[in-house]
């Protein structure tokens, strides 16, 4: 079937799923809260938990029927001054509001301007931040579980060229330019199954804040974006647990009150791929290992038998201790791990040889924080963490009698003091100090011929920051302005980073938004050789040395790795009325200090070390229409032009970035009725830039002569996805959810990367990497 025919069929199916319900009138008379709660329980198929004394003498009008559950709970909270906490999709706990000493610290000045952004559980704030709450997350096409890093790829300006969560491109930046924070701790590993699944359990994540521009001054690093994942931070003395499995992994989690002032949150997840072989695993395996040492065989490899075993797991824990109402201690722990082993057996010179190659990827993290509420206006938080990332590979080549050991290790330690002062309901001040020490080592050891290289670098930084936030009485004007000052003693350098976020509502339904920032970053990922680390995780972390040219120390050439610096500005107009959102945002971003080794070139620049920059100019457009909280549809489009400039390459002329995707289009719809959720979506984007061999290539020179860099493009990318979930009660205190999804419904053969090699006869071979084909998945979950 042609792509045009596929698109026509998809659009027809999409619009056949769009329906509306008639609106209902609103009852103005006040009723007892108990009566209203019964009505809401029936309307939304939920259950409230409360003490009778808590709701005694409370009266309120019946909320409108066209409100979402979140909006209803916010309405009740404001009217009856009680706390309504949605524990999961089924249960809501009602409690008295906390005392002012505790409550003031969690109060936000940010005004929510768009709720149910795309689907339930996604909200846009007036400072440009997108907030995702997995607990109340609805459904997205192709997803049956709220995978954090898959979910953000539905946002305008966010794309993964190779469909992984370990290569997310936000406004043209590379994945290492995203700052991933897990409960305040920096993460260096983002994916399981080498990028196909997020490494962070969504069922223990309370909230995710995504910032593409206008980042608060308290955040350093992450010149493309901040992805801040936060775990529940308040003790509510409510037990909560759940577990489930799909065709890739199984998980369990629990939130356990230990005493009235202590709580333990734990979770664990493990793949089932080494225990049970499923169709989904086979498809994932084919996608991940298609261009690695597990599948790339030499001509003599037909005598080799290869058997692999693979699994992943993650473990998280958080301990909460409220010493007093004003003093709180939090401890966090995370361990995310991927392990791959494969055995090679061959008959060499009439001898049986068996060697075991392996790859291990692990991120360990430990954090501690102490929060003190000094009074109703002032609070401080002292936070410290240590995170360790280790990528370790041993690769045996039986034919050539060679053993290669590679290791990339990161130690990151930080201490931070954060101060919040709320002068009044309109003015809030934030400031603090942060110390960071990062050490990164890279090891390469070969036995034949004998070669060993070990490089370790350490960079320390001292940062101070301050920011003021102003919100007008009527909520129409929001202004945040601040700055971060970073000092790097090793380079005797000071970097200033101003930040700006301004929004103004006008004509009631319109909002103007202006965002800007300057940022810097000392860590980045590079690729030395495409087959490093068995060709699966070939990117390694390195530290900036602030050099722009190659220097020689002790007869060793030190490649330049400057400090990355970015400048970004954006202007947007948003219209939001009657559940219709129209959003348009233009932006420009310039990043200096990138190296060719960090960009993954597979053309004439693959082995060249040069320093340059990229600049992207783009435009994000979104239309999102909701119909009576049953149907949500959206159309998103992004146009951008992203160019490199390397003074030493291409005669200094700009040429397209490897992530220069000019056009991106997403068309999706979500249908929710009672316990049934359906989602259908289409994703299309123009082809990735590529470099073709020159038509005048000389086959006798043992080299590939290329055309102009990135002067061609792969074929357009097209993928349609669908998903469905159904929830039902098992008992009065437990609820189950079953789900099914299909990724790439029409099994489109999308080429996501192409490069060229020479064979033994100096003939050019074309290598193509394909995306996932049609990939089904099912899941079953039970929550208590």
TrEMBL record:
Keywords assigned: Cell outer membrane, Membrane, Receptor, Signal, Transmembrane, Transmembrane beta strand, Transport
Output the Pfam families linked to this UniProt entry.
Answer: FecR_C, Plug
The family database entries (SUPFAM superfamilies) matched by this protein are listed as: Porins
Where is the secretion signal located? 1-23
Residues of the Protein FecR C-terminal domain: 30-90
The segment(s) forming the TonB-dependent receptor plug domain are 148-222
Membrane-topology annotation of the record: Multi-pass membrane protein
Q: Where in the cell is it found?
A: Cell outer membrane
Q: Which family does this protein fall into? A: Belongs to the TonB-dependent receptor family.
Name this protein carries in UniProt? TonB-dependent receptor
């Amino acid at each position: 079937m042609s792509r045009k025919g596929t698109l026509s069929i998809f659009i027809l199916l999409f619009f056949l799923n769009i329906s509306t319900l008639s609106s209902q009138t609103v009852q103005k008379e006040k009723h007892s809260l108990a009566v209203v709660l019964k009505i809401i329980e029936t309307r939304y198929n939920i259950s409230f938990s409360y003490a009778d004394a808590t709701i005694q003498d409370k009266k309120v009008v019946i909320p409108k029927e066209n409100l979402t559950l979140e909006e209803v709970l916010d309405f009740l909270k404001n009217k009856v001054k009680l706390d309504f906490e949605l524990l999961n999709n089924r249960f809501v706990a009602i409690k008295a509001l906390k005392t002012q000493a505790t409550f003031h610290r969690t109060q936000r000045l940010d005004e929510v301007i768009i709720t149910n952004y795309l689907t339930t559980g996604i909200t846009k704030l007036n400072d440009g931040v997108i907030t995702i709450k997995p607990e109340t997350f609805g459904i997205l096409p192709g997803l049956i579980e709220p995978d954090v890093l898959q979910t953000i790829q539905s946002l305008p300006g966010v794309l993964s060229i190779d469909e992984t969560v370990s290569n997310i491109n936000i406004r043209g930046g590379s994945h290492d330019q995203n700052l991933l924070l897990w409960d305040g701790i920096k993460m260096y590993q983002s994916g399981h199954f080498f990028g196909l699944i997020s490494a962070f359990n969504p069922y223990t994540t309370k909230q995710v804040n995504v910032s593409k521009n206008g980042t608060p001054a308290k955040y350093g690093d992450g010149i493309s974006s901040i992805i801040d994942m936060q775990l529940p931070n308040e003790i509510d003395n409510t037990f909560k647990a759940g577990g489930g499995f799909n065709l890739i992994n199984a998980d369990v989690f629990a939130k356990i009150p230990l005493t009235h002032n202590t709580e333990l949150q734990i979770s664990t997840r493990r793949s089932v791929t080494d225990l049970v072989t499923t169709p989904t695993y086979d498809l994932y395996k084919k996608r991940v290992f298609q261009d690695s040492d597990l599948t790339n065989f030499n001509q003599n490899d037909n005598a080799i038998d290869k058997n692999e075993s693979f699994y992943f797991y993650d473990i998280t824990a958080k301990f909460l201790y409220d010493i007093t109402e004003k003093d709180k201690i939090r401890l966090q722990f995370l361990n995310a791990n991927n392990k791959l082993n494969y055995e090679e057996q061959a008959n060499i010179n009439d001898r049986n040889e068996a060697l075991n190659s392996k790859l291990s990827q692990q991120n360990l993290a430990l954090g501690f924080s102490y929060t003190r509420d000094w009074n109703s206006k002032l609070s401080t938080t002292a936070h410290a963490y240590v995170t360790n990332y280790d990528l370790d590979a041993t690769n045996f080549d039986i034919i050539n009698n060679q053993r290669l050991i590679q290791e990339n290790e990161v130690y990151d330690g930080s201490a931070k003091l954060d101060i919040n002062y709320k002068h009044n309901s309109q003015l809030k001040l934030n400031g603090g100090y942060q110390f960071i020490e990062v050490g990164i080592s890279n090891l390469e050891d070969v036995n034949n011929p004998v070669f060993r290289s070990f490089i370790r670098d350490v960079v320390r930084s001292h940062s101070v920051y301050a920011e003021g936030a102003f919100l007008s009485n009527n909520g129409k004007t929001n202004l945040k302005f601040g700055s971060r000052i970073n000092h790097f003693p090793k380079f005797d350098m000071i970097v200033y980073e101003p930040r700006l976020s301004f929004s103004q509502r006008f004509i009631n339904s319109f909002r103007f938004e202006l965002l800007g920032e300057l940022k810097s970053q000392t860590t980045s990922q590079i690729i030395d050789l495409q087959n490093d680390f068995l060709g699966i995780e070939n990117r390694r972390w390195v530290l900036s040395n602030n050099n722009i040219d190659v220097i020689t120390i002790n007869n060793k050439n030190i490649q330049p790795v400057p400090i990355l610096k970015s400048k970004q500005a954006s202007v947007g107009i948003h219209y939001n009325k009657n559940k219709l959102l129209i959003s348009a945002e233009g932006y420009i971003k310039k990043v200096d200090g990138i190296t060719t080794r960090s960009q993954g070139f597979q053309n004439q620049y693959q082995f060249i070390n040069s320093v340059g920059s990229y600049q992207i100019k783009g435009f994000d457009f979104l239309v999102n229409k909701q119909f009576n909280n049953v149907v949500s549809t959206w159309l998103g489009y992004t146009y951008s032009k992203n160019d490199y400039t390397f003074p030493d390459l291409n005669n200094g002329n700009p040429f397209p970035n490897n992530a220069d995707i000019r056009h991106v289009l997403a068309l999706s719809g979500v249908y929710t009725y009672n316990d049934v959720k359906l989602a259908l979506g289409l994703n299309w984007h123009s082809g990735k830039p590529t470099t073709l061999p020159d038509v005048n290539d000389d086959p006798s020179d043992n080299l590939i002569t290329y055309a102009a860099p990135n002067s061609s493009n792969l074929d357009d990318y097209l993928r349609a996805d669908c998903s469905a979930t159904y929830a039902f009660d098992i008992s009065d205190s437990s609820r189950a959810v079953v789900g099914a999804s299909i990724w790439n419904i029409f099994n489109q053969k999308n080429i996501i990367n192409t490069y060229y090699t020479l064979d033994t006869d100096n003939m050019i071979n074309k290598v193509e990497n394909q995306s996932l084909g049609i990939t089904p998945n099912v899941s079953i979950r039970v929550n208590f």
